[in-house]
Specification:
Blueprint lengths: L5 E2 L10 E5 L10 H6 L5 E5 L16 H12 L7 E6 L1 H15 L8 E4 L17 H11 L10 H20 L12 E6 L7 H5 L9 E6 L10 H18 L1
Parallel strand pairs: 2-3, 2-4, 4-5, 5-6, 6-7
Antiparallel strand pairs: 1-3
Helix pairs in contact: 2-3
Length: about 250
Amino acid sequence: MDSTWFRRFGAAPEGSMRLVCFPHAGGAASAFLPLSRALGGRLDVLAVQYPGRQDRRREEPYRGIAAHADALAEALGPLTDGPYALFGHSMGAVLAYETARRLAAAGRPGPLRVFLSGRGAPSPRPGAHDRLGSDKEILNAVRGLGGTGHTVLDDPELLAMVMPALRADYGALGAYRWTAGSPLVSPLTVLVGDADPVVAVDEAAAWHDHTTGDFDLRILPGGHFYLDDRTDEVRDIITTSLLVAGSAA
């Protein structure tokens, strides 16, 4: 395992399936600590640590989705030798999807399932909520999304540490343009909060067009960061879906 890119928060059960988790914009691997603990003893949970945050804060963050996904696919390639799945939240959903596309193009084994959370399906035009040009707009957007991590924005020292990653991530999302290509073969499970202020249910449902496999849409109570309060429900969705996928593989 590439220790630069992936963090494991507990012992991996012997012979368990891998679940690789991609954080949201401005987020870090630790965002998936609660889910990792909830899945302990069932899956080998690896959380992606993007450059420019936490223990990689001295590295330059990626400023484009394509280049970031290229690097992630290269790092993830050696881990595709056994059964695995991907889970991405918000910006992480875009990166999980684009990484899966690159792995398929490289002829690597695909994930048994891709979980896409808190993000509408991609299109050739940027989403209205991605076009943020100033720090003030970014901070207002992040505060509007809520979640446990937004409290760091009230601490000037912590804010100075997270702003470079936020600028890079929102800049990457604003510049992202989906390009048409073959849909994924892997089944998709799409999760969205019923009160998400930036992702409508029909936008989440549009991911259906991006796979030739099974499609499952799950609407959970909560906003953009519904996962903070619904970790056990998300755990059950993941484990039930992967048990079915594993038995069919």
